[in-house]
Amino acid sequence: MSMPSPPRSDRPPARASARTTGLLLAAGAGRRYGGPKALADDGSGPWVVRAVRTLHDGGCGDVLVVTGAAAEEVETLLADMTDTRVSAVRCGTWEEGMGESLRAGLTALATRGRSIPTQALVHLVDLPDVGPDVIARLLDARPAGAGGVGGDALVRAAYRGVPGHPVLLGQDHWQPVLDVARGDAGARAYLRRTRPGLVECGDLASGTDVDTP
Predict the structure, then answer these.
(1) How sure is the predictor about 185, in pLDDT bands with cuts at 50, 70 and 90?
(2) Residue among 122, 134, 110, 128 nearest 204 (CA)
(3) Contact 19/63 with Cβ under 8 angstroms?
């Protein structure tokens, strides 16, 4: 199935915020897809590259990519992105599910020392129609129940009322997420309990993950 390029906006790219790191989960093998979706290319560039640019252009100060399957190939693509602040961390247990990738990414951010970001914007590599406008709207939004704009922020994109990704996690939420993130569940149990503020983005993208080519 051919996917369109991420929607573009007439508004200028959002000003990058050093306190927000885009955390891109791109470690899966894509067994149903036929190969790692980070390397998928429907004519508009590898999805991992597009997702990194989406996070950066939407307002994230830098991007951390969690790699696993085809890690060397993915990291080579990232190394060529000299115009973007991007780094990678490998998840040795990626085969156990997305929760392991999330744990690897949040742990890497939490141990950065003085450069620990205040917020992590968690995004998935297999959402190729999610563009910078979605990221900017999420970072700009202050919905009811979303917490503050810093360490206690908890905001999630929704598409026609259905919660999806990206998810903005303030630093206060990282340890509780690490405590429950296992297997394929990721942060699902924590988000169900805490009910993050929802930001409707259905007018900008479908938010549907692509599992088959």
Answers:
(1) confident
(2) 134
(3) no
Q: Which two tokens mark 16?
A: 């990058």
Tokens 């790692």 belong to residue: 36
Q: What is the mean pLDDT of residues 207-212?
A: 92
pLDDT tens string 95-114: 999 999 999 999 999 999 88
Cβ neighbours of residue 34 closer than 8 Å, sequence gap 6 or more: 213
Sequential DSSP letters for 159-199: ETTEEEEEEEEEGGGHHHHHHH--TTTTTHHHHHHH-PEEE
pTM (whole model) above 0.85: yes
Instruction: Tell me if the bond preceding 163 is cis, omega within 30° of 0.
Output: no
Tell me the C-alpha distance between 201 and 67, whole Å. Answer: 27
* DSSP H or E segment with residue 57: helix 47-58
